[in-house]
Amino acid sequence: MAGGISLKELAAELKLAPSTVSRALNDSYEISEATKKKVISMAEKLNYHANPFARSLRENKSKTIAVIIPERINSFFAQVVDGIEEIAQEQGYHLLIYNTHEDLEREQKIVNLLLNGRADAIAMSVTSQTSDVSHLQKLHDRGLPVIFFDRIRSEIPTTKFITNDYESAFEATKHLIQQGCKNITLLTLGKDLSISKERQRGYNDAIKSEGWELDPSMTLYCSHEEERNVELIEELLLSSNRPDGILASVEKLAFATYLAVKRTKLRIPSDLKLISFSNTSIAGILNPSLTTITQPAMSIGNECANLLIKKLTKPKQYELIDQVITIPSKLTIRESTLVE
Amino acid sequence: MAGGISLKELAAELKLAPSTVSRALNDSYEISEATKKKVISMAEKLNYHANPFARSLRENKSKTIAVIIPERINSFFAQVVDGIEEIAQEQGYHLLIYNTHEDLEREQKIVNLLLNGRADAIAMSVTSQTSDVSHLQKLHDRGLPVIFFDRIRSEIPTTKFITNDYESAFEATKHLIQQGCKNITLLTLGKDLSISKERQRGYNDAIKSEGWELDPSMTLYCSHEEERNVELIEELLLSSNRPDGILASVEKLAFATYLAVKRTKLRIPSDLKLISFSNTSIAGILNPSLTTITQPAMSIGNECANLLIKKLTKPKQYELIDQVITIPSKLTIRESTLVE
DNA sequence: TTGTATGCGTTATCAT
DNA sequence: ATGATAACGCATACAA
């Protein structure tokens, strides 16, 4: 459709062989400075742009990174994508985006699609439904560089970037305890996700470290539907054994909690203290402002892109070794956990 | 890197000619059902995936749409991208993302990059710095389908999707007036942006429709730096002629207003009523909850993708005619404009 | 219905 | 320092 001019046409215009022009444009040492100058200026004049597909076909690489995320772009994934995009653009890489919508089948389809080489590398965060990992295994077996972030699968021996979910959840729970909470509920999404497990473990250990008994009914499994979650939480808040502290393992559950609280007579933080994993920039203008554990989303994105590009550029020097790299989250205390 | 098997190898395995295999996989009418079945099953067995670059080179199309956005992915652009992604994935298209970071030079660079045919079509929202549109003109001249959304440039004769900025700003201002505001300030970003102009016009006309005098000092030009904006707004709120109503033309200026108000003794909505263009899902849990004009971001994304894909699929039937398509925004009244 | 040959636009190998 | 030629993997015009 676009149809600029080709290398051959440019060469004809210059009365040079295509190979010479190619070398000149690629700044080969075999070409004289004089012709290089001529070629480059003519290329600019005629607005020549190398056909990326011919080049990709020839060189067997695309200068493209694919990012697969599991849900609608929320503040966390938006920041990760921004972080990846920043580095990619800087390094002349292109960015493909795919959304699995928490659907394993879509994830498999997309992963299979990428097996054809459209992208040189992949950064992904898996679906909460991802039980079977054979599609991911295949990706890795084929030698396509893959990195996981946030929602990782340890079965695949590659580098993964996460935040310190365990420690953060531990710290968050301890913070609630320090602020006087005696009865803390964890709001979480699933049991399968790596991050859920780690956050649950952090919560569990914090409770146990007080010598308290761990009550399984104090972990509330929520869904992906907001209204349903609000109902669940409201029910929880109206129950006889209602919590005086809540740790929301993802942002949207904190928002659901605000909505649920609105439906009751309870007040944050006097009746209920709330802390949440969250990347929203407006935690500070919620009322009361929300104490958060902020994941270093932008940094995670940056690191993913940096490592992948290094691996692509210098495959011998950089290996995607099987390790989990942890970038710490940051606890920001605000009004929602204040002692009044 | 990835290196699956090629068509030729697949053909060899099947003891068929590559062309036959190609046709079978493309479901050509010339091929018998029997061989089609054989070919397809073998292709699956050997995990054959057509090389996208060879195909793109041959067919001169990439099944790829590029999206260019001007800033970090915020709730509006996230929703637009989600909307585009949804349709693209459904139709087997790939999505490239580029961020110009409000920088004209980057915009030019990216646009020039896309001149080489890497994407079949482009959906974009321009930079607030975009004064010179020659790079956009070139894109269009080359016949590359381009659509603008939200931040459009009317100089380029193509289809643009926006929301009813003028009417919404008018309605929003009228709403403030109905709620008793006598002194309304418009917070805006620039004077160059299409959307800013329209929203300003809507505000102006609403003020004038009351028979009031239009006071230029009641329009506050903000920056892209949050802290600076908070200071500007705080100053405004402490001035002798402070407003009793604010219309924020973009979300982040509403957030800045919340922060500025926090620093004063004023209260929303009793001392100051606030309404904002915004796509945040949490307008309802701000305190007080925020009256918003919600842009149909997801729909805008859907429409962009749909039209582009139609144009690509049936170029004769669908033209990107020079028109502006308006999808209305929705006013949702919440506490921040309540009469107490 | 299937096979053969060509070309898409590059880059790399081998000449000159 | 430059030119001729082949090859990347695919789809298609042409041949059988």
Automatic annotation (TrEMBL), chains A, B:
MF terms in GO: DNA-binding transcription factor activity; transcription cis-regulatory region binding
SMART domains given in the database record: HTH_LACI
Keyword DNA-binding: yes
One Pfam family it belongs to: LacI
UniProt domain HTH lacI-type: residue ranges: 5-59
Keyword Transcription regulation: yes
Keyword terms, alphabetized: DNA-binding, Transcription, Transcription regulation
InterPro entries noted in UniProt: HTH_LacI (IPR000843), Lambda_DNA-bd_dom_sf (IPR010982), Peripla_BP/Lac1_sug-bd_dom (IPR001761), Peripla_BP_I (IPR028082)
Signal sequence bounds: none
Protein name: LacI family transcriptional regulator
